[in-house]
Specification:
Number of helices: 9
Shape: elongated
Strand order of the largest sheet: 6-5-7-8
Radius of gyration: 23 Å
Helix content: 40-55%
Order of helices and strands: HEEHEEHEEHEEEEEEHHHHH
Number of strands: 12
Largest sheet: 4 strands, antiparallel
Length: 364
């Protein structure tokens, strides 16, 4: 890749990441302020401070040298991971002194802000440009394909796959792609009747993408491109955002069971490259990519890993069940372990991105 291309990727990456991080942290900040919790620091980036200003509420807004994240530090927090102490529960305006529902709302507000951002960006595209609707109807069946062998016919309406409702043809493609060589129960409507058909997608492999994916062997019917109104765009954006989150959760499930493709693994370097590609493809592709990253960030932050928002919510849930918080010592140990895990994971992803070209051939 040329030097200009690398610079474009880096700029696109920062243009994607910085606003998404700001929105995430602003969600925490805004709900904290509404609950009378004092925010001492709002930082975009980590490391040495490049610039700062202090607002009328006493919050120090800072821009740091490493724009690979950000944080809000609330009154009573010992550091950016929100470690607390027993004494902080008695500090007026501290996060630890807020009620349990308030603390849960403050923590959940960051991921919620990311989901809302994704929905709004999808809606922007649907209002400005439109959305392609392709009904989940079989248009044609390829000879000797898995669909042909299973008995699928042109005109079949695919209502669900393995219990997942398929409102659009893209839903079918996603589920088939994720399940090569695995029998899938297709619920189809044919000539007014509903029946189940077992289809086993054929496994295909892409050396370039380093993924194995399922192949069905059908063509869709012609799609309908529609420009949507504001209300319909927001509704469709919400549906698509949660459908995307569902696909991401299935990917996390594959990772947990060791079935994740190499091509599905990526860190900052890979995201930077995709950011550059999306930017060069035009504003619509770039906006959709930003929406995908925003939803991904919101979902990942909800995972029950200490140091992430989901980890804090897990600790608060334990507090609600026990009617008392875990000891500060236990909580801080868990937060340190979570931070160490996340830093190790980030290092692994950076190294993987950097040396993935040296990995042996992926496809058999």
């Amino acid at each position: 890749m040329s030097g200009f291309g690398i610079i474009t990727n880096i700029i696109a990456f920062l243009v994607v990441l910085t606003p998404i991080v700001f929105i995430h942290e602003f969600g925490h900040y805004w709900v904290a302020r509404k609950n009378k919790v004092i925010v001492d620091v709002f930082s975009i980036g980590f490391g040495p401070e490049l610039y700062h200003w202090i607002d009328r509420h006493g919050t120090r807004w800072r821009i740091a040298a490493l724009p690979l994240g950000g944080y809000v530090k609330m009154r009573g927090d010992e550091n950016a991971t929100s470690m607390t102490s027993e004494a902080s529960r008695y500090i007026k305006g501290s996060f630890a002194a807020a009620s349990l529902p308030a603390r849960m709302a403050i923590v959940a507000a960051g991921p919620a802000a990311n989901f809302i951002t994704g929905i709004l960006l999808f809606a922007l595209v649907y209002v400005a440009v439109g959305k392609l609707y392709i009904q989940p109807v079989v248009g044609d069946v390829m000879p000797d394909s898995p669909a042909y062998e299973a008995g699928l016919q042109p005109g079949d309406v695919i209502l669900a796959v393995n219990g997942y409702e398929t409102a659009q043809f893209n839903d079918v493609k996603a589920l088939v792609s994720e399940n090569p060589n695995k029998p899938l129960a297709f619920t189809i409507e044919r000539e007014g009747g509903v029946q189940d058909v077992i289809v086993t997608p054929q496994e295909l492999c892409s050396e370039q993408m380093r993924v194995k994916y399922g192949y069905l062997g059908v063509q869709s019917v012609t799609g309908d491109f529609r420009q949507l109104g504001v209300g319909e765009s927001l509704w469709q954006g919400t549906i698509d955002s949660f459908a995307l989150a569902g696909a991401m959760l299935r990917g996390i499930g594959r990772m947990a069971t060791g079935q994740l493709n190499e091509g599905e693994i990526g860190g900052p370097v890979k995201i930077a490259k995709i950011s550059g590609d999306a930017a060069r493809a035009g504003w619509v592709s770039f906006v959709i990519f930003v929406a995908l990253i925003s939803i991904n960030l919101g979902l990942v932050n909800l995972l029950p890993v200490p140091a992430l928002d989901g980890g804090h919510l897990m600790l608060f849930s334990i507090e609600a069940i026990l009617r008392r918080p875990l000891s500060d010592k236990v909580q801080n140990i868990l937060l340190r372990l979570g931070t160490a895990f996340l830093m190790s994971l980030m290092l692994f992803l950076i190294l993987y991105d950097s040396y993935s070209s040296l990995i042996p051939k992926f496809c058999p």
